[in-house]
């Protein structure tokens, strides 16, 4: 029989499991608290659990604990980039960003990615595998333990396409926001997707209060297809219909991400087309100056073009921000830290 993953279970599931082992009900609460509130890195830490129980748990279940391989700390803004190793040797990265309103962690949902977006480093070597709910949680847990500061916001915007690992990501969200765990408000959790239509519709009906961010990156299918292969599968009108459905079902305001690439999607005609396209959604547009990766020739739009693009959207009454680049001095966009680690290892 395949082993069950301790840290991916809800409290009721864990209780059933421990009852079946002949343990008293309070043991599951203790164990759950060690994992999800005290953020224990090992079973050995759980000193109020009998040693023989800890040994049985270690032998009969999957115990997920991430090993920190590297931490890069920005001298400019305190941003920290973490490289973690999974039990099978795969590595993933996560980022802690410090804002006035609190600490935000960006987590990976997959090791690698198979979506193939042209400007993104996470997808260059394809998908290694999906992450377990516990492996996504552990990124937040290890960072909170490392800094000793409470994490108040989580964005699923690291490597991977969260909607391509749907069940594990939804379970992760429920565990992260559970009152008996870290209790992070769902309103402070954002999931970013390249636009997998059936999964967006399914997510709309989960009864969650998270923010959905759509990676739009273009105001029409033609330009979008140049940047994102997924646009060949789902045309914009279908993706936007699914987003409207999400908004309707959850009442949550949408975020549209738009990475500005010089000469590809950043002129005023494109800003106008974008405003026409999403003006009716009362969403928020997040402009991201593209972070050039070595393997591709995309160039960041210049300051004036970014400002003109932003100014135009504002004039049209659209809520827009330009994403501040965090941790500039420690380098790298989504997946670059992992990629450079893997390249080094190969060499
Ligand atoms: N798979 C999810 C999460 C990706 S990362 C998605 O597609 O939404 C979060 C955002 O960063 C996405 O909008 C992604 O398209 C964008 N992104 C990835 N690499 C980038 C780069 N080098 N420069 C700018 N934006 C990038």
From TrEMBL:
GO terms for biological process: rRNA base methylation; tRNA methylation. Gene3D superfamilies: 1.10.150.530, Aldolase class I (3.20.20.70). The keyword Nucleus does not apply. Residues 99-329 form the Radical SAM core domain. It is an enzyme of class 2 (transferase). One of its GO terms (cellular component) is cytoplasm. Keywords: 4Fe-4S, Cytoplasm, Disulfide bond, Iron, Iron-sulfur, Metal-binding, Methyltransferase, rRNA processing, S-adenosyl-L-methionine, Transferase, tRNA processing. S-adenosyl-L-methionine binds at residues 160-161, 192, 215-217, 291. Its EC number is 2.1.1.192. Binds 1 [4Fe-4S] cluster. The cluster is coordinated with 3 cysteines and an exchangeable S-adenosyl-L-methionine. GO terms for molecular function: 4 iron, 4 sulfur cluster binding; metal ion binding; rRNA (adenine(2503)-C2-)-methyltransferase activity; rRNA binding; tRNA (adenine(37)-C2)-methyltransferase activity; tRNA binding. [4Fe-4S] cluster binds at residues 113, 117, 120. It comes from the Bacteria. The active site is at residues 93, 334. CDD domains: Radical_SAM. InterPro entries: Aldolase_TIM (IPR013785), Methyltransferase_A (IPR040072), RlmN_N (IPR048641), RNA_MTrfase_RlmN (IPR027492), rRNA_lsu_MTrfase_RlmN/Cfr (IPR004383), rSAM (IPR007197), rSAM_sf (IPR058240). It is found in: Cytoplasm. Specifically methylates position 2 of adenine 2503 in 23S rRNA and position 2 of adenine 37 in tRNAs. Belongs to the radical SAM superfamily. RlmN family. This is Probable dual-specificity RNA methyltransferase RlmN. It comes from Candidatus Lachnoclostridium pullistercoris.
């Amino acid at each position: 029989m395949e082993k069950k993953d301790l840290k991916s279970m809800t409290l009721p599931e864990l209780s059933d499991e421990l009852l079946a082992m002949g343990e008293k009900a309070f043991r599951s609460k203790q164990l759950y608290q060690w994992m999800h509130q005290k953020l224990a890195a090992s079973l050995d830490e759980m000193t109020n659990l009998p040693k023989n129980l800890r040994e049985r748990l270690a032998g009969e279940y999957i115990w997920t604990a991430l090993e920190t391989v590297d931490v890069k700390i920005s001298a400019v803004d305190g941003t920290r980039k973490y490289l973690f190793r999974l039990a099978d040797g795969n590595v993933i990265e996560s980022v802690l960003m410090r804002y006035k309103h609190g600490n935000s962690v960006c987590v990976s949902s997959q090791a690698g990615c198979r979506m193939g977006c042209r400007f993104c480093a996470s997808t260059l070597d394809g998908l290694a595998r999906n992450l377990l709910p516990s492996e996504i949680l552990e990124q937040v847990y290890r960072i909170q333990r490392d800094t000793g500061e409470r994490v108040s916001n989580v964005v699923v915007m690291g490597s991977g396409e969260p909607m391509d690992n749907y069940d594990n990501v939804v379970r992760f969200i429920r565990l992260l926001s559970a009152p008996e765990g870290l209790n992070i408000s769902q309103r402070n959790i954002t999931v970013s997707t390249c636009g997998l239509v059936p999964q967006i519709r399914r997510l709309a009906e989960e009864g969650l209060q998270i923010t959905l961010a759509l990676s739009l990156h273009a105001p029409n299918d033609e330009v979008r297809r140049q940047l994102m292969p997924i646009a060949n599968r789902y045309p914009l009108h279908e993706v936007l219909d699914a987003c409207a459905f999400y908004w309707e079902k959850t009442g949550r305001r949408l975020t549209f991400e738009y990475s500005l690439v010089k000469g590809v999607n950043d002129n005023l005609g494109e800003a106008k087309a974008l405003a026409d396209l999403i003006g009716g959604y009362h969403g928020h547009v997040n402009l991201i100056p593209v972070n050039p990766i070595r393997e591709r020739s995309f160039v960041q739009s210049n300051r004036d073009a970014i400002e003109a693009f932003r100014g135009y959207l504002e004039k049209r009454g659209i809520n827009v921000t330009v994403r501040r680049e965090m941790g500039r001095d420690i380098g790298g966009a989504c997946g670059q830290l992992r990629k450079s680690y893997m390249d080094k290892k190969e060499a």
